[in-house]
Amino acid sequence: MPITAFLDIHVKTESLADAPDILHETLIVTRAFTGCLGVDVLVDTEDPTHFVLVEKWASLEHDAAYRTFRAGPGKSPLGAVLAGPPLLTKFEIATDI
């Protein structure tokens, strides 16, 4: 079953100028990863350091493989510009509502 993952991040104010390029380079790999159905990047209208990445994955297993990749050989430079730990939340479609 497809899932949607929300990755809520805040970048350091001093890294704000570099963040779009780092996000872009990171998302080239993410979007090409097996099972990725797409990623949208939202920016807070009142706080330009606050982003939410809306990731669509073919399954929880695809998402888990991606997270394992990013924790190991696919480590992204994004972590260096973050003001704190990201918040990851995963959702699936409620089919019985």
From TrEMBL:
InterPro entries the UniProt entry points to: ABM_dom, Dimeric_a/b-barrel
What molecular functions are annotated in GO for this chain?
monooxygenase activity
For the ABM domain, which residue ranges apply?
Answer: 3-65
Q: Which domain of life is it from?
A: Bacteria
Q: Which SUPFAM superfamilies match?
A: Dimeric alpha+beta barrel (SSF54909)
One Pfam family this chain carries?
A: ABM
- Record key words, sorted: Monooxygenase, Oxidoreductase
What's the protein name? Quinol monooxygenase YgiN
Gene source species:
Cryobacterium levicorallinum
